[in-house]
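Q: Predict the assembly, please.
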Amino acid sequence: MKKVWEVYPLRVAFASIPAALIVSALAITLLPPSVSFWVSGAVSAFSAFLFVAYAWGRHAGGLLVAPAIALLFCMNIFPLLWSFGLSFFHYRANRLAPPRFAGLHYYEKVLTDPVVWDRLQVTAQLVVLTVSLQMIVGFLLAMLFAKQFPLRRVLLILVLTPMMLSFVAVGAFFRYYYEPTFGLLSQAVRVFTGEPYVLLQSTAGAIAGIVFADAWMWSPFVMLLVLAGLVSVPKYLYEAASIDRISHWRRFWNITFPYVRSLLMLALLFRTIEAFKLFDVVFLLTEGGPGTSTETIAVYVYRVSFQYFKTSESAALAYILLFTVIVLTNLYLYFANQRNRT
Amino acid sequence: MSATDKKSLADRLGLKVHSGVGNAGWGRTVFAAVISFIYFFPVFWIILTAFKTHNDALAIPPKFIFTPTLENFVAVFSRAYSAGAAAQDTGFALYFFNSVFIAGTSVLLALAIGTLAAFGFSRYPLRGNDTYLFIILTTRMLPAIVVIIPIFLMFRVAGLSGTYIGVILLYTAFNLPFTIWMMKSFFDELSPDVEDAARIDGSSDRRVFFKICLPQVKAGLAATAVFGLILTWNEFLFALLLTGVDTRTVPVAMAQTIGGDIGVRWGLLAAIETLFLIPVIVVTFMLQNHLLRGVTFGTIKR
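A: Predicted assembly structure:
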């Protein structure tokens, strides 16, 4: 016997869309915003429910994915589109004036702004330095912990702790460590030179300070991913290798590395994306200084949107940024896939 | 699971030397201990600072030996806001509860939804599968600052700002991309042989998922949960703008402690961070077994 929800065809689900649109439009015009929001939400949920009910038992893949896509749509994609729309209007979040259409004005402004290019350079510098340092340190740490040894679990937790600190604490405490009078670094240097050491006053020093704090915090992340790859290597492959008397170097490249590579790639991808958005540590540690020499693009976007309240300009800026990251990621994934196929 | 539970304490701490190919012995322990302590030192210093008086924290040269005090830990929960005033409750107990509740719920929710989605993406590819995955990844690429204004406006209209459900849903969405990508890579690595065998023996798709695939990716689940927890636990910017007085999380409250007219109270800040660190360390230590024992891939030999 067919179940009730298996009887009706796809038409019904599609028919619910215009109905939902009409109901939401009526609700928005007739009811106060806080009520109409929930009414239109309920109607679209009902419409979505009809699609789900239709697909039940017929399209497993779509159904498994649906809840995740729906939530991401509400909480991420919809706001993204909204701010994309805002980037074409004159709009300031701290004014009540209704948005006026601006066309591509803000994109033109941002792309011709030398300040933006300068911030992008700073960001690129920091990303390259911090991510490469993280990959190297993370990989070395993973190699250190790849084998079993007594007390390994306890020591591993010690290494993982930096990652668990909050950004607020890392920013604040590295400031405390770099502090010229009573900071640990200055004190340590004073033992040798006899005078206090001010790390954050020079550009190179500030960059080094940020890179050190960020890489220190996130190398364990890379380590964990690499370690997950390392422990996944089947033991019998190593046994076979030791029977065949294969050198350590070849054993590493032919057995270990292929298992680690995909996770290493994933780590690189995620860390690069995160480093591109580097904000909290920079903001708390140097506030972009000295001058603007360590002001990353994320800090700049923050200043434009929350200190100068140029909402539209910051949205346009962010979209150019997003576009850059997407292009770079695509190139990266393309090359990663190419290498996997060969 | 049962084998894990019955492990002795010595084994849990990694004291027992395991025999096998990958064993390096006590020599490695010494080497790793030195590296680990150097790496851990900044955190160690934070913990040390939590037990110092204000004068000790600012001492020149830095004090390694001092009389430990618990006054900072007391001050986290109740302190006088101005000199001579009576000590007041700071509300930190509530903030700790909020952090636990919000982070816990949203990580579990993201894990449930994300694992299903990852399984779907891995086993039943849709048309344009890679496009979907890429769009999901894209949502993590934009600086949070840009989506914050629309989300803020949206939450205000919907009456969600300052409520638990709003923040939890937001954090769930915030964790989803990572969960999906991570779990998909784990599902992709599984050997299809066992699944096929189970299907031939007449197992339903649901059974294959719960009884065969899920147990094999336990390590993946643990790792993803730990990452999600760490990110959510420490998230600052969304929490600052979207939580109210009653739903405020610890990082926001911590940042408010930094601002003050008598300079930063480092001891107090260190005490907050030390307390705040304990739950994450405990969870990580508990899940570490799954995280690193390699239950996943090594067990099934092709």
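The mean pLDDT of chain A is 81. Chain A has two domains: 4-86, 110-341.
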